[in-house]
Design goal:
Blueprint (H helix, E strand, L loop, with lengths): L1 E7 L2 E11 L10 E9 L5 E8 L5 E8 L4 E8 L2 E9 L7 H11 L5 E8 L2 E8 L4 E4 L8 E14 L5 E10 L6 E8 L2 E6 L12
Length: 209
């Protein structure tokens, strides 16, 4: 996960890069993706989004938002060949993966419940999130001691075939401090469940307790 400030036609925004891959040799599971996006610093809605999925046969999904016209242009490529394109009229805020990542961090521990809209295979789908105020202590590989964290809970009203069939209920933990670092996510996939956990980090000055 990398995050930086950058410029766009809509002003200053965040550029977020998310990379994930499953361990080599796992039977029936092969997850690899690099998601890059620009999100608004005010609303965290998506402005631009590119997702590269697959180690060998590479699929690319591109989303481009025209915020003034409320239009979202979509493109899907396989091995650099355009196989699908579409334009959607948007009346709500749209959060692609990088925007969802920032939203989870910002709302952790808030006590809120939110229904969030995202693009899933050229359709607008929703995810319901709950952000309890209670703190929990969890352990992750990157830290040598338990750390205080806020739990979040989600219910995906969709299935992501490109993410090993990610679907249904999931949960995660974010550090209960100003850094709001994602620590762990547990989710259901088509073969059972999957766990994503922080293994290392480079964040000068971060000392979670």
């Amino acid at each position: 996960i990398r995050q930086e400030l950058c410029d766009s036609a809509d002003g200053t925004c965040y550029r977020i890069i998310l990379t994930a891959e499953s361990a080599q040799g796992l039977p029936f599971i092969d997850v690899y993706f690099v998601n890059q996006g620009k999100v608004s610093t005010e609303t965290l809605e998506s402005l631009e989004f590119t997702s590269d999925v697959g180690r060998e046969k590479r699929s690319r999904f591109v989303h481009q938002m025209d915020t003034s016209a409320k239009l979202l242009t979509l493109g899907e490529f396989v091995d650099n060949n355009l196989i699908r394109s579409d334009t959607l009229h948007i009346n709500e805020l749209i959060y692609d993966d990088p925007g969802l990542f920032m939203l989870l961090r910002c709302l952790s521990g808030s006590g809120e419940t939110r229904e969030v809209s995202s693009v899933m295979e050229s359709r607008i789908e929703t995810t319901t999130f709950r952000f309890p105020r209670e703190r929990e202590e969890i352990e992750v590989a990157a830290l040598d001691h338990p750390v205080s964290a806020f739990r979040f809970e989600g219910k995906a009203n969709w299935t992501r075939n490109d993410y090993a069939g990610l679907k249904g209920e999931f949960c995660g933990w974010v550090s209960a401090d100003s850094a709001a670092v994602p620590l762990r996510i547990e989710a259901k996939i088509f073969l059972g469940s999957i766990v994503l956990e922080l293994e290392s980090y480079e964040r000068p000055g971060w000392r979670p307790t």
